[in-house]
Specification:
two-stranded antiparallel sheet, 8 strands, 322 residues, single chain
């Protein structure tokens, strides 16, 4: 939770800082996922477990069931969640008097721009990042994690796109790991991933000493090329074949990440990503208006999710919140 917006002021190729940010995000994500898996295994050691339901004969060809070398990577803002998760987190911090009204107005303007334009504005996001680092400096990581859980319930749970949630569930049902990949702080992203039942999250890593935020980043924000570096590092550590993996995003800033995998998807795409996806025959789906994808070929699971995702995701979210 070490910042409310960390996006770089310009696009650029992978640098040493991008690689550092990516590797730090991958390490943090694997550590958190390993801990969650250990906790889940401990809870599973109970008697009288029900037999698993038989697999359906008409399972979709993709995601491929049982492919342990495949995984899915989902961008967060406007792909999984409506709007910017960090803005909603900022609202929660303001409610708890972490900063002044003038700073909330600045965050609100960034969010308004994001929703109207459909893209991240680098200057706005850079401004938010710098102010946010000073806000959390000196606070304990555990404190922000606890607050983050409350803020998710207050502002984020009802803003998950049911269609995208159904796509993620299709990968989980196929036995694949599903990761969020976002410029949001890794703590924020981890909370959202856990609430949605995903494997874990790759996010911007903030420096902390003895559990207290220093106000500095490890590397740079996980944005653009840094996202691709994080996915590459995680894939290497997990033994994944990127040609068999999928990635989902709404933003042209994530083209480096989308280009890494064999199954790239444009979800609620901005103008530049839509154009790029059409030129390369990538699959598209837009949940903002309910219209069907401009490009055919979405997996069967996505089609089902567009129709039944609202009900299924609502039930799943309700169960997890309980």
């Amino acid at each position: 939770m070490a910042a409310l917006g960390w996006l770089t002021p310009r696009r650029r190729s992978a640098t040493a800082r991008s690689v550092l940010a990516g590797e730090a995000a991958a390490e943090a994500a694997r550590n958190e996922a390993a801990q969650a898996e250990a906790e889940a295994e401990a809870e599973a050691q109970t008697p009288a477990q029900e037999d698993a339901a038989p697999a359906q004969a008409d399972a979709p060809e993709f995601p491929v069931p049982g492919d342990a070398h495949a995984a899915a990577f989902f961008d967060l803002d406007n792909t999984v969640m409506q709007g910017a998760a960090l803005f909603h987190f900022g609202r929660g911090l303001y409610k708890r008097k972490f900063f002044q009204r003038s700073e909330l107005f600045r965050f609100a303007w960034q969010q308004t721009w994001f929703r109207l334009a459909g893209v991240e504005d680098p200057e706005h996001m850079q401004d938010v990042r710098e102010s946010a680092l000073s806000i959390v400096q000196g606070h304990r990581v555990s404190e922000l994690m606890s607050i983050g859980e409350e803020i998710y319930d207050e502002y984020m749970a009802d803003r998950i796109w049911p269609g995208t949630r159904a796509l993620a569930q299709a990968h989980l049902d196929a036995g694949q790991k599903v990761w969020l990949v976002t410029a949001a702080p890794v703590e924020t992203a981890t909370i959202i991933a856990r609430r949605l039942g995903l494997t874990g999250a790759l996010g911007t890593v903030a420096e902390s000493v003895d559990g207290v935020y220093t106000g500095k980043l490890v590397g740079e924000p996980l944005h653009g090329p840094a996202k691709a570096e994080a996915v590459r590092a995680l894939a290497a550590a997990e033994g994944l074949d990127l040609a068999r993996c999928a990635a989902y995003s709404d933003s042209h800033n994530d083209i480096p990440m989308l280009s890494l995998v064999g199954h790239p998807y444009a979800i609620n795409p901005d103008t530049k990503l839509r154009k790029h996806a059409r030129e390369r025959d990538w699959r598209l789906r837009d949940y903002r208006t309910g219209r069907k994808a401009a490009k055919v070929g979405i997996p069967a699971a996505a089609g089902v999710g567009a129709l039944a995702g609202g009900t299924a995701a609502a039930v799943a979210l309700h169960r997890r919140r309980r």
